[in-house]
Amino acid sequence: MKSPASLKRAAEWALPYWTRGQAGRETPQDLFRVLYFGWLVAFTLKLLGSAWDVSWHFKWLRDDLAPPHLLNSAGTAIAVALTVIHGYTGYGVDKAALRLIQWGTGIFLVAVPLDLINHRVNGLDITSWSPSHIMLYLGTFFMIAGVLRGWFMGAPPGRERTVVLGAFFAFFLENVHFPEQHQEYGILSIGAWDNHATYAEPILLQFAADQMGRPVDRGMMTAFALPVPDFLYPVYAVVAGLSVLVVARLLIGRFGAATLVAGAYVGVRTLLWPLLTFTGFPPSAVPFFLVVAGLVVDLAFLVRMPYVRALLGTVGVTAAAYGALVAQSAIMGGVYSAIKGQKGLLGAPPLATSSAVWAGLGLLVVWLAVEWLADRRRGSQTIEARVIATATP
């Protein structure tokens, strides 16, 4: 805990900055760093809370004041405070970044009471894909997008800029991939059931069964743990998750950026795995395939022609993602079985391989759009540079 003297010094440093201003205001570098390191703290708390939250809901009945919710709420409180600071002072953001942050925070805050009402009306609603949950992800999506833009536009060149940009993209990937954790936990819960073990407490299973109007059996477990079509997991992962890696590689501009962003997210999931499971919470499959796909994204950027890169990259990345998922199901299943002392636990959700065509087409559309936007941005910068050069005596 900070001493009164240190708090006083912090207040004396911060108060002169608390003045009304428009977005795009020139920001002192020390204030800029404090604001964006505050965002790192906020997103870290939200990540830890949300990771614990999924595991919690596969074990216990829902509770509005559950510890994961409180941890997530602490991160949200910091995010709201930073949004107010950016909006009032105009420091650290341009107009576009501020609007994204404000809209994201607003959507998130509206989604919270809607989600509470949804749970009151519909009971468990454990699926991550419900409308109220999607609103939470959408709000966080815009919020992190605004923070990414603010840091990208305002941070001075250097190693710190690159590392922090990569960290924000890892948080962005976590938010985009978050609903997929339902299947990652669900497939192992079904595997445990098949081996005469359950991770969920009896009160949760009975509540879910009563809500479905059926006995506690495998059919109920499947509806509880995997309530979405098998194609959703790989298609969403390729179209949404890998699009994040494409944008990360493009904006960071360094070979290995996509791999490191994916590796950072998967690394956190890997570290949290024993912390959760050894304390009695359900395990999840970990999306190691994202690292393989990230490496192929980096390799694709060795192709210099943007639209050719998008086409070849889509084919390679989609094949790598689906191939890695197949391998993960076979190889990681044995690892999880050894850890849990059970047979037949799968290391990845069910995979509808025929969906690869649709996943690839979706990723191609996004990748081409990203390359087109980047090409326009490069063109506008070239024109501005020529105008400046012409106007300079």
Mean pLDDT: 85
Structural class: mainly alpha
Classify the beta-strand content into a percent band.
Answer: under 5%
Q: Any idea what the shape is?
A: globular
Terminal CA distance reads 57 Å
Instruction: Give the total of beta strands.
Output: 0
Q: Give the helices and strands as they follow along the chain.
A: HHHHHHHHHHHHHH
* Biggest beta sheet summary: none
Which regions are unreliable across 5 or more consecutive residues at pLDDT < 50?
Answer: 335-346, 382-393
Number of alpha- plus pi-helical segments: 14
Helix content: over 70%
Radius of gyration: 23 Å
Fold and architecture overview:
The protein has helices at residues 4-14, 29-57, 67-89, 95-122, 131-154, 159-177, 181-194, 202-212, 218-225, 232-252, 257-277, 289-300, 306-340, 356-391. It has 393 residues and is an all-alpha fold. The longest helix is centred in the C-terminal third of the chain and has 36 residues, at 356-391. The chain is globular, with a radius of gyration of 23 Å. The model is unreliable at 335-346 and 382-393 (pLDDT under 50).
What topology does this entry show?
Layout: H1 4-14, H2 29-57, H3 67-89, H4 95-122, H5 131-154, H6 159-177, H7 181-194, H8 202-212, H9 218-225, H10 232-252, H11 257-277, H12 289-300, H13 306-340, H14 356-391
Helix pairs in contact: 2-3, 2-6, 3-4, 4-5, 5-6, 6-10, 6-11, 7-9, 10-11, 10-12, 10-14, 11-12, 12-13, 13-14
